[in-house]
Protein backbone atom coordinates (compact mmCIF):
# COMPACT_ATOMS: atom_id res chain seq x y z
CA UNK A 1 0.00 0.00 0.00
CA UNK A 2 1.34 3.41 -0.95
CA UNK A 3 2.30 5.93 1.72
CA UNK A 4 3.71 9.52 1.92
CA UNK A 5 7.10 9.53 0.19
CA UNK A 6 10.27 11.49 0.98
CA UNK A 7 13.21 11.90 -1.40
CA UNK A 8 16.96 12.38 -1.62
CA UNK A 9 17.54 15.63 -3.58
CA UNK A 10 19.82 16.00 -6.59
CA UNK A 11 22.31 18.86 -6.17
CA UNK A 12 23.76 20.88 -9.06
CA UNK A 13 26.88 23.01 -9.07
CA UNK A 14 26.42 26.30 -10.94
CA UNK A 15 28.85 29.15 -11.58
CA UNK A 16 26.28 31.47 -9.97
CA UNK A 17 25.45 29.12 -7.06
CA UNK A 18 26.02 29.81 -3.37
CA UNK A 19 25.67 28.52 0.19
CA UNK A 20 22.09 29.39 1.22
CA UNK A 21 20.74 25.87 0.74
CA UNK A 22 23.18 24.84 3.45
CA UNK A 23 23.08 27.92 5.69
CA UNK A 24 19.35 28.81 5.54
CA UNK A 25 17.74 25.43 4.85
CA UNK A 26 20.31 23.32 6.73
CA UNK A 27 20.64 20.90 3.82
CA UNK A 28 24.15 19.59 3.14
CA UNK A 29 25.16 19.47 -0.53
CA UNK A 30 28.74 18.19 -0.06
CA UNK A 31 31.01 17.66 -1.94
CA UNK A 32 29.93 20.58 -4.17
CA UNK A 33 31.74 23.90 -3.46
CA UNK A 34 28.54 25.85 -4.24
CA UNK A 35 25.02 24.71 -5.02
CA UNK A 36 22.94 26.63 -7.54
CA UNK A 37 20.05 24.18 -7.80
CA UNK A 38 18.62 21.50 -5.57
CA UNK A 39 16.18 19.27 -7.42
CA UNK A 40 13.94 18.25 -4.53
CA UNK A 41 11.56 16.15 -6.65
CA UNK A 42 12.51 15.09 -10.16
CA UNK A 43 11.60 12.51 -12.77
CA UNK A 44 14.01 13.97 -15.34
CA UNK A 45 16.04 11.18 -16.94
CA UNK A 46 19.52 11.02 -15.42
CA UNK A 47 18.53 13.27 -12.51
CA UNK A 48 15.73 11.38 -10.79
CA UNK A 49 15.22 11.71 -7.06
CA UNK A 50 15.19 8.51 -5.01
CA UNK A 51 12.79 7.59 -2.21
CA UNK A 52 14.41 7.51 1.24
CA UNK A 53 11.60 6.15 3.47
CA UNK A 54 9.57 2.97 3.75
CA UNK A 55 9.70 -0.22 1.71
CA UNK A 56 10.15 1.69 -1.58
CA UNK A 57 13.41 3.32 -0.39
CA UNK A 58 16.08 3.33 -3.10
CA UNK A 59 13.61 3.44 -5.99
CA UNK A 60 13.61 6.36 -8.41
CA UNK A 61 10.45 8.40 -8.92
CA UNK A 62 9.60 7.14 -12.40
CA UNK A 63 10.31 3.54 -11.38
CA UNK A 64 7.46 3.58 -8.88
CA UNK A 65 5.30 5.47 -11.38
CA UNK A 66 5.72 2.56 -13.82
CA UNK A 67 4.57 0.15 -11.11
CA UNK A 68 1.75 2.06 -9.42
CA UNK A 69 0.61 4.25 -12.35
CA UNK A 70 -2.67 6.04 -11.55
CA UNK A 71 -2.51 4.94 -7.90
CA UNK A 72 0.47 7.26 -7.55
CA UNK A 73 -0.55 10.23 -9.70
CA UNK A 74 -4.30 9.90 -10.39
CA UNK A 75 -6.16 8.63 -13.44
CA UNK A 76 -6.33 11.92 -15.31
CA UNK A 77 -2.65 12.70 -14.75
CA UNK A 78 -1.54 9.20 -15.73
CA UNK A 79 -3.64 9.23 -18.91
CA UNK A 80 -1.90 12.43 -19.97
CA UNK A 81 1.68 11.91 -18.80
CA UNK A 82 2.03 8.10 -18.59
CA UNK A 83 5.31 7.07 -16.92
CA UNK A 84 6.93 10.51 -16.72
CA UNK A 85 6.25 12.40 -13.52
CA UNK A 86 4.82 15.75 -14.72
CA UNK A 87 6.40 18.21 -12.27
CA UNK A 88 9.91 19.23 -11.25
CA UNK A 89 10.40 20.93 -7.87
CA UNK A 90 13.60 22.92 -7.30
CA UNK A 91 15.28 25.23 -4.83
CA UNK A 92 17.51 27.81 -6.57
CA UNK A 93 20.24 29.91 -4.94
CA UNK A 94 21.52 32.76 -7.12
CA UNK A 95 24.60 34.78 -6.11
CA UNK A 96 24.93 36.31 -9.58
CA UNK A 97 22.65 36.99 -12.52
CA UNK A 98 21.49 33.84 -14.28
CA UNK A 99 21.45 33.94 -18.05
CA UNK A 100 18.56 35.77 -19.72
CA UNK A 101 16.52 32.91 -21.12
CA UNK A 102 13.21 31.67 -22.41
CA UNK A 103 11.41 28.31 -22.49
CA UNK A 104 9.30 26.88 -25.35
CA UNK A 105 5.63 26.02 -24.95
CA UNK A 106 4.27 22.49 -25.43
CA UNK A 107 3.53 23.03 -29.12
CA UNK A 108 7.02 24.26 -30.02
CA UNK A 109 8.72 21.70 -27.78
CA UNK A 110 6.69 18.96 -29.46
CA UNK A 111 7.57 20.23 -32.93
CA UNK A 112 11.26 20.15 -31.99
CA UNK A 113 10.91 16.74 -30.29
CA UNK A 114 11.93 18.12 -26.89
CA UNK A 115 9.16 16.59 -24.80
CA UNK A 116 7.25 19.10 -22.68
CA UNK A 117 7.33 22.85 -22.80
CA UNK A 118 8.20 24.69 -19.63
CA UNK A 119 5.91 26.88 -17.56
CA UNK A 120 7.05 27.62 -14.00
CA UNK A 121 6.44 29.68 -10.88
CA UNK A 122 8.84 31.22 -8.37
CA UNK A 123 8.20 31.65 -4.65
CA UNK A 124 10.88 33.83 -3.05
CA UNK A 125 12.29 32.25 0.13
CA UNK A 126 14.96 34.86 0.83
CA UNK A 127 16.18 38.01 -0.89
CA UNK A 128 18.95 40.53 -0.34
CA UNK A 129 17.78 44.16 0.18
CA UNK A 130 18.62 45.11 -3.42
CA UNK A 131 17.64 41.82 -5.08
CA UNK A 132 16.01 42.01 -8.49
CA UNK A 133 14.87 39.74 -11.29
CA UNK A 134 13.86 40.08 -14.91
CA UNK A 135 10.41 39.07 -16.16
CA UNK A 136 9.12 40.10 -19.58
CA UNK A 137 9.51 43.33 -21.58
CA UNK A 138 9.11 46.91 -20.33
CA UNK A 139 7.74 48.20 -23.65
CA UNK A 140 5.95 46.95 -26.73
CA UNK A 141 8.43 44.88 -28.66
CA UNK A 142 9.01 43.36 -32.10
CA UNK A 143 11.64 40.97 -33.43
CA UNK A 144 13.79 43.57 -35.19
CA UNK A 145 14.02 45.93 -32.20
CA UNK A 146 14.72 43.02 -29.88
CA UNK A 147 17.57 41.76 -32.08
CA UNK A 148 19.04 45.24 -32.31
CA UNK A 149 19.25 45.55 -28.50
CA UNK A 150 20.56 41.99 -28.21
CA UNK A 151 23.36 42.53 -30.74
CA UNK A 152 24.37 45.78 -29.05
CA UNK A 153 24.50 44.00 -25.66
CA UNK A 154 21.83 46.34 -24.29
CA UNK A 155 19.10 43.76 -23.86
CA UNK A 156 18.41 44.62 -20.21
CA UNK A 157 17.30 48.13 -21.26
CA UNK A 158 14.12 46.72 -22.84
CA UNK A 159 13.36 44.15 -20.13
CA UNK A 160 11.10 44.52 -17.10
CA UNK A 161 13.10 44.53 -13.85
CA UNK A 162 11.32 43.76 -10.56
CA UNK A 163 12.69 44.41 -7.08
CA UNK A 164 11.92 41.38 -4.92
CA UNK A 165 11.53 40.46 -1.27
CA UNK A 166 10.78 37.36 0.74
CA UNK A 167 7.38 35.73 -0.02
CA UNK A 168 7.00 37.44 -3.42
CA UNK A 169 5.50 35.29 -6.17
CA UNK A 170 6.11 35.26 -9.92
CA UNK A 171 4.39 33.12 -12.55
CA UNK A 172 6.62 32.54 -15.58
CA UNK A 173 4.63 31.08 -18.49
CA UNK A 174 6.45 29.55 -21.43
CA UNK A 175 7.59 32.25 -23.84
CA UNK A 176 8.37 34.85 -21.18
CA UNK A 177 11.95 36.15 -21.21
CA UNK A 178 13.31 36.01 -17.66
CA UNK A 179 16.38 35.88 -15.42
CA UNK A 180 17.08 35.70 -11.71
CA UNK A 181 19.36 38.28 -10.16
CA UNK A 182 21.87 37.90 -7.31
CA UNK A 183 20.83 37.50 -3.68
CA UNK A 184 17.72 35.37 -4.30
CA UNK A 185 16.79 31.98 -2.85
CA UNK A 186 13.55 30.60 -4.26
CA UNK A 187 11.33 27.57 -4.70
CA UNK A 188 10.46 26.74 -8.29
CA UNK A 189 7.54 24.59 -9.44
CA UNK A 190 7.70 23.73 -13.14
CA UNK A 191 6.69 21.30 -15.83
CA UNK A 192 9.07 18.38 -16.17
CA UNK A 193 11.45 19.78 -18.77
CA UNK A 194 15.11 20.73 -18.87
CA UNK A 195 14.85 22.76 -22.08
CA UNK A 196 16.17 26.31 -21.80
CA UNK A 197 17.09 28.71 -24.59
CA UNK A 198 19.89 30.97 -23.37
CA UNK A 199 19.54 34.42 -24.96
CA UNK A 200 22.29 36.39 -23.25
CA UNK A 201 24.77 35.42 -20.53
CA UNK A 202 26.42 38.69 -19.56
CA UNK A 203 29.52 37.79 -21.64
CA UNK A 204 30.54 35.09 -19.15
CA UNK A 205 32.90 32.23 -19.93
CA UNK A 206 32.62 28.57 -18.98
CA UNK A 207 35.14 26.58 -16.93
CA UNK A 208 37.29 26.08 -20.02
CA UNK A 209 37.47 29.79 -20.84
CA UNK A 210 34.98 29.62 -23.73
CA UNK A 211 31.96 31.88 -24.18
CA UNK A 212 28.83 30.06 -22.95
CA UNK A 213 26.57 28.72 -25.70
CA UNK A 214 23.69 30.96 -26.76
CA UNK A 215 20.49 29.92 -28.56
CA UNK A 216 19.58 33.16 -30.32
CA UNK A 217 17.84 31.63 -33.33
CA UNK A 218 16.09 28.83 -31.45
CA UNK A 219 14.75 31.33 -28.93
CA UNK A 220 13.14 33.64 -31.49
CA UNK A 221 10.16 31.39 -32.18
CA UNK A 222 9.67 30.76 -28.46
CA UNK A 223 9.59 34.38 -27.24
CA UNK A 224 6.34 36.15 -26.34
CA UNK A 225 7.10 39.75 -27.41
CA UNK A 226 3.98 41.27 -25.80
CA UNK A 227 4.25 43.69 -22.91
CA UNK A 228 1.92 42.98 -19.96
CA UNK A 229 0.45 45.33 -17.35
CA UNK A 230 1.88 43.32 -14.46
CA UNK A 231 4.42 40.53 -14.11
CA UNK A 232 4.07 39.99 -10.37
CA UNK A 233 1.51 37.50 -9.01
CA UNK A 234 -0.51 38.87 -6.11
CA UNK A 235 -2.02 36.68 -3.41
CA UNK A 236 -3.51 37.06 0.07
CA UNK A 237 -1.86 35.01 2.85
CA UNK A 238 -4.42 33.51 5.24
CA UNK A 239 -3.51 31.91 8.55
CA UNK A 240 -4.87 28.35 8.94
CA UNK A 241 -6.43 28.40 5.47
CA UNK A 242 -5.11 27.57 2.01
CA UNK A 243 -4.09 30.71 0.11
CA UNK A 244 -4.43 30.22 -3.68
CA UNK A 245 -1.27 31.14 -5.60
CA UNK A 246 -1.28 29.78 -9.17
CA UNK A 247 -3.88 27.75 -11.04
CA UNK A 248 -2.80 26.79 -14.55
CA UNK A 249 -3.16 23.68 -16.75
CA UNK A 250 0.20 22.35 -15.54
CA UNK A 251 -0.08 22.79 -11.78
CA UNK A 252 -2.14 24.32 -9.00
CA UNK A 253 -0.29 25.78 -6.01
CA UNK A 254 -1.51 26.97 -2.64
CA UNK A 255 0.28 28.42 0.36
CA UNK A 256 -0.48 26.75 3.69
CA UNK A 257 0.42 28.89 6.72
CA UNK A 258 -0.80 27.51 10.03
CA UNK A 259 -0.17 27.58 13.77
CA UNK A 260 -2.57 24.78 14.70
CA UNK A 261 -3.46 21.32 13.42
CA UNK A 262 -4.83 21.31 9.86
CA UNK A 263 -6.79 18.41 8.40
CA UNK A 264 -6.76 18.00 4.62
CA UNK A 265 -9.34 16.00 2.66
CA UNK A 266 -8.26 15.06 -0.87
CA UNK A 267 -11.04 12.54 -1.56
CA UNK A 268 -12.39 14.70 -4.41
CA UNK A 269 -8.99 15.26 -6.04
CA UNK A 270 -7.80 13.02 -8.88
CA UNK A 271 -4.11 13.88 -8.45
CA UNK A 272 -1.04 13.37 -6.32
CA UNK A 273 -0.18 16.16 -3.89
CA UNK A 274 3.30 17.59 -3.25
CA UNK A 275 4.21 19.41 -0.06
CA UNK A 276 7.33 21.56 -0.05
CA UNK A 277 8.51 22.80 3.34
CA UNK A 278 9.09 26.56 3.48
CA UNK A 279 9.29 27.49 7.17
CA UNK A 280 9.11 25.65 10.47
CA UNK A 281 8.83 21.91 10.99
CA UNK A 282 5.52 20.27 10.14
CA UNK A 283 4.44 16.81 11.25
CA UNK A 284 2.35 14.80 8.79
CA UNK A 285 0.05 11.94 9.77
CA UNK A 286 -1.68 9.61 7.33
CA UNK A 287 -3.10 6.48 8.91
CA UNK A 288 -0.20 4.82 10.72
CA UNK A 289 2.37 6.84 8.75
CA UNK A 290 4.12 9.75 10.46
CA UNK A 291 6.90 11.95 9.17
CA UNK A 292 8.36 15.42 9.55
CA UNK A 293 8.64 18.06 6.80
CA UNK A 294 11.52 20.51 7.25
CA UNK A 295 12.27 23.58 5.09
CA UNK A 296 13.44 22.50 1.63
CA UNK A 297 12.04 18.97 1.99
CA UNK A 298 9.43 17.45 -0.29
CA UNK A 299 6.75 14.92 0.54
CA UNK A 300 4.75 13.27 -2.24
CA UNK A 301 1.25 12.10 -1.32
CA UNK A 302 0.08 9.38 -3.71
CA UNK A 303 -3.36 9.91 -5.24
CA UNK A 304 -4.76 7.01 -3.19
CA UNK A 305 -4.24 8.95 0.06
CA UNK A 306 -7.42 10.87 0.80
CA UNK A 307 -6.80 12.37 4.25
CA UNK A 308 -3.80 13.76 6.09
CA UNK A 309 -3.25 15.73 9.28
CA UNK A 310 -0.62 18.47 9.40
CA UNK A 311 0.78 19.56 12.77
CA UNK A 312 3.20 22.51 12.98
CA UNK A 313 5.79 22.70 15.75
CA UNK A 314 5.11 26.45 16.04
CA UNK A 315 4.06 28.18 12.82
CA UNK A 316 4.48 26.10 9.69
CA UNK A 317 4.51 27.11 6.06
CA UNK A 318 4.18 24.72 3.12
CA UNK A 319 3.60 24.92 -0.61
CA UNK A 320 0.80 22.58 -1.64
CA UNK A 321 1.00 21.47 -5.28
CA UNK A 322 -1.23 19.25 -7.41
CA UNK A 323 -2.76 19.08 -10.89
CA UNK A 324 -6.42 20.11 -11.12
Cross-sheet strand order for the largest sheet: 4-1-20-17-22-15-14
Overall pLDDT score: 97
Classified by CATH, the class of the largest domain is Mainly Beta
Q: Any guess at the CATH architecture of the largest domain?
A: Sandwich
State the helicity in percent bands: 10-25%
Task: Quickly give the structural class.
Answer: mainly beta
Low-pLDDT sequence parts? none
The sequence of SSEs as H and E is EEHEEHHHEEHEEHEEEEEHEEEEEEEEE
Strand content: 35-45%
Number of discrete domains: 2
Key descriptive features of the protein:
about 325 residues, mainly beta, Jelly Rolls, 2 domains, seven-stranded antiparallel beta sheet, six-stranded antiparallel beta sheet, about 35% strand, globular
Question: How do the helices and strands line up, and which of them pair or pack?
Answer:
Elements (H helix, E strand, L loop, with lengths): L4 E4 L1 E3 L7 H4 L13 E5 L8 E2 L9 H8 L1 H4 L1 H7 L5 E8 L5 E3 L3 H6 L8 E8 L4 E6 L5 H9 L7 E5 L5 E4 L5 E3 L3 E8 L5 E4 L15 H5 L20 E7 L4 E7 L3 E4 L7 E7 L2 E5 L2 E5 L4 E4 L5 E6 L3 E7 L2
Antiparallel strand pairs: 1-4, 1-20, 2-3, 3-5, 5-12, 6-13, 7-10, 7-12, 8-9, 8-11, 14-15, 15-22, 16-21, 17-20, 17-22, 18-19, 18-21
Describe what you observe in this structure.
The structure is a single chain. By secondary structure, the protein is mainly β. It has two domains: 5-220, Jelly Rolls; 241-322, Jelly Rolls. Helix content is 13%, strand content 35%. It has seven helices and 22 strands. Strands 4-1-20-17-22-15-14 form a seven-stranded antiparallel sheet, with no helix packed on it. A six-stranded antiparallel sheet has the order 2-3-5-12-7-10, with no helix packed on it. It has a four-stranded antiparallel sheet with strand order 16-21-18-19, with no helix packed on it. Strand 14 and strand 15 (252-258) form a beta hairpin. The protein is globular, with a radius of gyration of 20 Å. The two termini are 24 Å apart. 41% of the residues are buried. The mean pLDDT is 97.
Amino acid sequence: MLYPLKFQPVFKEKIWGGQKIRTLLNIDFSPLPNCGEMWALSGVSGFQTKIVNGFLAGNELNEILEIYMDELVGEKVYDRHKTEFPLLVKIIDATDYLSIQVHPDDQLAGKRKLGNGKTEMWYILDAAPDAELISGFNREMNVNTYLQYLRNKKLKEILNVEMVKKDDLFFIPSGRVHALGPGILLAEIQQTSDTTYRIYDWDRFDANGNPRELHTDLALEAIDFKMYDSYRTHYRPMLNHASPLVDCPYFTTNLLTFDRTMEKDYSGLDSFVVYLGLEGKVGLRSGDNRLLISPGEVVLLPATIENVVLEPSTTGKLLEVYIS
